[in-house]
Design a protein that fits this description.
The chain is mainly alpha-helical. The protein has 35 helices and six strands. Strands 1, 2, 3, 4, 5 and 6 form a six-stranded antiparallel β-sheet that branches. Helix 5 runs antiparallel to helix 18 and helix 20 packs antiparallel against helix 21.
Length: about 950
């Protein structure tokens, strides 16, 4: 075929397509139905156009010479349709309903195949395999017409997600069954349930893995293409085709699933990897690609209908009607029979009956079914009568679903009331309308005065506003309960938060890695509000400041093997994330006060602000501990953040000057180059130095002062530096007698049996009595803030004492003093038990150093040793640490208050913090489970 006529024919078809959407709107027909009608007419006219002028005849001749094969449908158009649908879907909403979606996409295909095959085999002479093959072909659904109707009538988003999600995956299931059955029909396989199942599982899961890998690879490559939107968009187009073709022809897995998963990955992750403006262009570009592909595939498929139906007889037409009824029955079995059963499991979510009715009736078929039927007609190994029957039955069935289901679907949705807003949504809409119209009415009056517009004209415009305000009858927010108003307000603020995080990504205030984490957290917060209301929000904000899974794993490796690099990166990322969250949380409070108050009222807004203020407090407290321990890194983060904001403001200012023609394009380009050079230093991200070198930390422990260089080197090889997080358990019950700890920086809390505590600061150590076999009590020890500890195992402790006589003497002196303090404690306990009178019998008071040592010894004994709690309290009140200061109530504070002092606040402690820290120095050991940071026990 001449290339010029090929281009002429395609251009003519696209020109015809341009007028289809407005024509479909005027005729009140679904767009796909109109395309099918026009395609059928073209399929007839191309064979009888002797009456037409030469240029129309040449156009119709070019269409007639188009070689439209099944491979053209599947390889040229299908990847674009799948990728476009997947790209526009919200992955989190898809995962919320993944149970019903997979039920409709997989189980429904199998049920439809079996029911259609068995029924037709009983009433037709074509055989079971042929009838099953027809069932697999007609099982695939086409969402284009249905979704178009949903958008026109305003159907709920969840219903759209269910239908689109089903169509994305059922193509894969249908094509997998089709391939197996076609091989059986051609004599290249056997019809066994296990064979079909295994083949389907391999194709489906393998396609998912391949699509995920290629999608992630594309997201990685976006970083290399940043700043070149045309290149980034082109990469997404090539990804759609490459994921389909490579999976089908080289990996022998489902190309449909691979393309869908790749599109979902790019849609969820790609927006943080590509340049911010590109993602906005991407949606428009793929909407255009999808429009072209959908329109052309329907036209080409419809043009084949006259050819496929030319030899149909009345018996085959009767079977078409049977197929139509049987597929509805099979779909009803799944929708009304299996979906409710799925809802009883954890994988299922409840689907209302109106949704089920629309899902039953909205299972329209389209171009994919016609393409598969056309592929059967191209198989010479299939008997001629079987090819004819499948072609006629599929074509007639597709036409019935389009003209019967498609045309009646819109009235059905309206009859079920699915195009109506819920009472809460209607109230919010009316309130928003009232607030907007009142504001606009005032602004319109100001414009009229400024422009000197006459009073009569102003009165007419004002009458339009007054009539609209009068029509809002149920706009009173008081009709909603307080809980409803607060939940609605929190949902609005959560959506605004997600947009704010995306805005700071576009402004390049954060990089894509941080933006990805922040957006994921914002989406989880929105889900928590949607599912749990106010309680869900409160749980989510507490979880939001917890340590990530990556952080926990990095900390575990740090304790097991001493790895510090990963932990430092995770700590730096947490620091930057908290700073970004704090900035957004502050702006959200302002947004709520300014925008939510007129919409939901003062009372609801105050509660919303209070909830977000609590969230801000949690973030501030989590940051405070980091600021105290790493002040230089905190200063760099603040400088980087402010510098990025300044850079964005400068960029916006230059852009405004360009749009107002104050500067030329050449001047703008020069200014942007200077801006990039001026602020390049803020993109250099220094690593966080957690300062965990054993040699450096040893110098902070007074006990090691005066030792020889050789002794210090030997000690540094035995001591294991460990970073303890706020409220992490350092020494727990069951670990005493196995290790001791030196506090090189920060502070720890020793929790006494009377529920009070003693703080040990830098230079202090604990756990040595247990190693010496003098264990008395064993309370838990937790870290206050971020503390740097030096851990010494029992074996290394005894080896160290045997090697260094001077150090052994120092530790033994301290141990004897602490044992003496414990004896004083016991005497006081016995005296208290023997003389319970208001004035206790006189007991020799321990010296301050003895009391401090006794308090330290409390870090090495057992809480269940039978010592009376009053005695423990007396011990705590008896004296101070050496070098410490008394507080009210006799509390001893660490020597280094100041920068290592733990922040104090009222954040609730997590239950995770109460799990035993089995170890920090072996395969069977693990660091304490982390909860909210920076909580100081009282």
């Amino acid at each position: 075929m001449d290339v010029g006529f090929l281009v002429f024919g395609l251009a003519g078809l696209l020109t015809l397509v341009c007028f289809m959407p407005p024509l479909a709107g005027r005729l009140k027909l679904p767009y796909s139905v109109l395309l099918a009608i026009v395609g059928c007419l073209l399929g007839i006219i191309v064979h009888v156009h002797g009456w037409a002028p030469s240029w129309i005849g040449d156009f119709l001749d070019s269409l007639e010479r188009f070689e439209i094969s099944s491979e053209t449908f599947l390889m040229v158009f299908l990847p674009v349709l799948l990728f476009e649908t997947a790209l526009s879907m919200n992955v989190r909403r898809l995962m919320d309903d993944i149970g019903p979606i997979l039920m409709m996409a997989i189980v429904a295909v199998v049920v439809c195949t079996v029911v259609v095959g068995v029924t037709l085999d009983a009433i037709s002479p074509y055989g079971l395999v042929v009838c099953l093959l027809l069932g697999a072909i007609v099982a695939t659904t086409d969402p284009v017409a249905v979704v178009g109707i949903f958008r026109e009538v305003g159907a709920p988003k969840r219903l759209t997600t269910l239908v689109e999600g089903e169509s994305l995956f059922n193509d894969a299931a249908s094509i997998a069954l089709y391939s197996v059955l076609l091989a059986v029909l051609g004599g290249h396989g056997e019809l066994t349930a296990s064979g079909i199942f295994n083949d389907f599982i391999v194709h489906f899961i393998g396609g998912g893995i391949a699509g995920f890998a290629m999608g992630r690879l594309a997201c990685f490559l976006f970083a290399w293409l940043r700043g070149f939107p045309t290149a980034e968009i082109t990469l997404t187009l090539t990804l759609a085709y490459l994921s389909f073709f490579i999976s089908e022809h080289y990996l022998n897995v489902s190309g449909v699933v691979a393309t869908v998963i790749a599109g979902l990955v790019v849609g969820s992750t790609g927006r943080t990897r590509m340049s911010p403006t590109t993602f906005e262009y991407l949606a428009s570009a793929w909407e255009q690609f999808g429009f072209w592909a959908n329109s052309l595939i329907f036209l080409f498929a419809a043009m084949l209908i006259p050819k496929l139906m030319a030899a149909a007889d009345w018996q085959e037409l009767v079977l078409v009607g049977v197929v139509f009824v049987v597929t509805l029955v099979a779909r009803a079995i799944v929708v009304f029979g299996l979906l409710p059963l799925l809802g009883l499991t954890r994988l299922g979510t409840k689907v209302s009956n109106p949704y089920k009715v629309v899902m039953l009736w909205g299972g329209l078929r389209g171009a994919v079914s016609l393409a598969l039927a056309l592929a059967v007609t191209e198989q010479t190994g299939v008997p001629e009568e079987a090819r004819q029957f499948i072609a006629v039955a599929t074509t007639g069935f597709v036409l019935l679903t389009l003209f019967v289901n498609g045309i009646s679907l819109r009235p059905l949705i309206r009859m079920l009331g699915l195009n109506q807003l819920s009472p809460v949504e209607r109230t919010i809409r009316n309130q928003a309308l009232a607030v907007a119209l009142e504001d606009l009415q005032g602004k319109t009056d100001e414009v009229a005065k400024t422009e000197h517009i006459g009073t009569e004209v102003r009165d007419r415009i004002r009458a339009v506003f007054d009539a609209s305000l009068t029509s809002v009858h149920d706009g009173q927010v008081s009709q909603m309960s307080d809980e409803q108003r607060v939940s609605v307000g929190l949902a609005i603020v959560a959506q605004r938060e997600e947009e704010m995080f995306f805005d700071i990504l576009k402004a390049q205030i954060v990089d894509w890695r941080m933006a990805e984490a922040l957006l994921a957290r914002a989406e989880r917060l929105e889900d928590a509000i949607r599912m749990g209301g106010v309680p869900g929000f409160e749980r989510a904000i507490v979880a939001d400041v917890r340590y990530s899974t990556g952080f926990r794993l990095a900390l575990r490796l740090h304790y097991l093997f001493g790895f510090q690099g990963w932990l430092a990166r995770e700590l730096g990322q947490r620091f930057a994330n908290l700073m970004s969250k704090r900035s957004v949380a502050q702006r959200l409070i302002v947004f709520a006060r300014e925008q939510i108050t007129p919409l939901l009222g003062e009372a609801a807004t105050q509660r919303i602000v209070a909830l977000h203020q609590r969230r801000l407090d949690l973030i501030e407290n989590a940051m405070q501990a980091l600021n105290l321990q790493y002040p230089s890194y905190a200063q760099w983060l603040q400088e980087s953040y402010l510098g990025r904001v300044a850079r964005e403001l400068e960029r916006i200012r230059y852009r405004d000057m360009l749009e107002q023609f104050l500067i030329s394009g050449e001047v703008y380009a020069d200014l942007m180059a200077q801006l990039k050079s001026r602020w390049s230093h803020i993109d250099t991200h220094p690593p966080l130095d957690i300062e965990m070198s054993a040699a450096d930390l040893i110098n902070r422990v007074p006990l090691f002062e005066g030792l020889s260089a050789d002794s210090l080197r030997a000690i540094s090889k035995l001591l294991k530096p460990r970073l303890s997080l706020p409220d992490q358990r350092v020494l727990t019950k069951g670990r005493h007698g196995e290790e001791m700890c030196f506090v090189a920086s920060g502070a720890v809390a020793v929790h006494l049996p009377d529920n009070t505590m003693i703080e040990l600061g830098s230079g202090e150590f604990f756990g040595e009595l247990g190693l010496l076999g003098e264990q008395q009590i064993a309370p838990e020890v937790t870290s206050l803030g971020y503390s740097k500890l030096l851990m010494l195992s029992s074996r290394d402790f005894h080896a160290l004492l045997a090697r260094d006589e001077h150090l052994r003497e120092r530790i033994q002196v301290v141990a004897k003093q602490r044992l003496r303090a414990i004896e004083v404690w016991k005497q006081f306990s016995q005296a208290s038990n023997a003389a319970p009178a208001p004035v206790p019998a006189p007991v020799s008071a321990p010296t301050p150093s003895q009391a401090a040592e006794a308090a330290e010894a409390a870090g090495a004994g057992s809480s269940d040793s039978g010592i009376d709690e009053r005695a423990a309290r007396a011990l705590r009140e008896a004296g101070l640490h050496e070098g410490g200061k008394p507080e009210a109530g006799g509390k001893a504070v660490p020597r280094e208050a100041g920068q290592h002092e733990a922040p104090k606040h009222e954040a609730p402690q997590s239950a995770e913090l109460h799990e035993a820290d089995e170890s920090q120095d072996g395969e069977s050991r693990r660091p304490g489970v982390l909860g909210e940071p920076g909580v100081q026990p009282r």
